[in-house]
Amino acid sequence: MSDIKHQPNTQAQDQLSDQQLVQVAGGVDFDQLRRENLEKDAVDFDQLRRENLDKDAVAYPAQ
């Protein structure tokens, strides 16, 4: 028999209270972190396109 059938259900865990979350976070401002990550994820597609065109021009010069 597989041991997987005898393991406890991991989805039935208690949720942490807001106070417990603050203690676990160790003072990290997750909202600020989320905003910073969203800004990093925002891609300037025009800039990316220009960079790729420049790379292609160097890698495959016109004949």
3D structure, described in words:
- It is a single chain.
- With 63 residues, the chain is mainly alpha-helical.
- The chain has 3 helices and no strands.
- The protein has helices at residues 18-25, 30-41, 45-59.
- The longest helix has 15 residues, at 45-59.
- The model has no long low-confidence stretch (mean pLDDT 77).
Structural class: mainly alpha
Cα(first) to Cα(last) distance is 66 Å
The shape is elongated
Rounded Rg: 24 Å
Number of helical stretches of at least 4 residues: 3
Determine the mean pLDDT. Answer: 77
Strand content: under 5%
Total beta-strand segments? 0
Low-confidence stretches: none
Helix percent band: 55-70%
Q: Major sheet, described briefly?
A: none
What keywords describe this structure?
single chain; 63 residues; mainly alpha; 3 helices; elongated
Give the SSE map.
Elements: H1 18-25, H2 30-41, H3 45-59
Quick synopsis:
By secondary structure, this protein is mostly helical. The chain contains 3 helices and no strands. The longest helix is centred in the C-terminal third of the chain and has 15 residues, at 45-59.
